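Students often ask why inverse folding is considered easier than folding. One informal answer: many sequences map to the same fold, so there is more than one right answer. In these notes we will look at a single instance of the problem. The structure comes first.
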């Protein structure tokens, strides 16, 4: 067994254990394998043992891998900060975008999504920890953006995404994740197509799953540590 295969098994077991612990069906939680900075060969290795969903943070790097692998069974999620001048590449190549946080980006993605592709699945990023530096809308801004996004025909509003501030205590992780889950439930009530809460990384996965996350984003635990030297050279 390769280490990627082994790591994937371990991560899937962690997801199952966390789900079972709080009485949820593990099938409700999608594992998004975050492959940023890793070569296409690592993605191919994970795909060969059944992993389907991959997350990329850097537009051009992601597009290169999507085109290199050209595997119609893979589902590609853009999870990095999105600049307007890169929106076309996301609209034309990815299946999902998790980081919609302003109408201008949503409008561009809608205009640039090719007709031959289905609507682009989008999540609205929420700045749940209210940090000045992070992207995402506040909970107060969410309803207006959701209403505008839901009207764009080439986009499909699927739910919410958040990157909570790092927090070591489980109870505090849970409190933040529950705030996101409440916003998600309200959104589902308003838009019945909404089905995805992208929440939880290696360190807060258990709290995220307990709160109701439907998609966890895991990189290092699957592919190993990233080489930050090379990551720093990306300019998205
Ligand atoms: C990098 C990244 C992840 C995965 O982080 P790891 O620490 O490698 O598991 C998850 N979500 C987002 C938005 C990321 O940028």
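Output (designed amino acids):
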């Amino acid at each position: 067994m390769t280490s990627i295969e082994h790591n994937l098994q371990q991560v899937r077991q962690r997801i199952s254990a966390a789900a079972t612990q709080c009485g949820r069906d593990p099938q409700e939680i999608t594992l998004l394998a975050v492959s940023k900075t890793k070569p296409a060969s690592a993605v191919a290795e994970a795909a060969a043992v059944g992993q389907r969903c991959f997350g990329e943070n850097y537009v051009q790097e992601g597009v290169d891998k999507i085109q290199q692998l050209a595997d119609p069974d893979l589902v590609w999620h853009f999870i990095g900060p999105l600049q307007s001048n890169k929106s076309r590449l996301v609209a034309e190549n990815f299946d999902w975008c998790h980081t919609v946080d302003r109408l201008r980006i949503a409008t561009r993605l809608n205009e640039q999504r090719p007709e031959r592709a289905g609507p682009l699945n989008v999540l609205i990023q929420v700045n749940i920890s209210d940090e000045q530096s992070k992207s995402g809308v506040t909970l107060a801004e969410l309803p207006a953006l959701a209403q505008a996004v839901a009207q764009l025909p080439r986009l499909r509003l699927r739910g919410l995404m958040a990157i909570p501030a790092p927090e070591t205590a489980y109870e505090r992780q849970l409190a933040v994740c529950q705030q996101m889950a409440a916003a998600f439930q309200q959104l589902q009530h308003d838009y019945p197509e909404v089905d995805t809460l992208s929440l939880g990384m290696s360190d807060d996965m258990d709290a995220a799953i307990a709160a109701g996350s439907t998609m966890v984003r895991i990189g290092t635990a699957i592919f190993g540590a990233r080489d930050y030297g090379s990551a720093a050279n990306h300019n998205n």
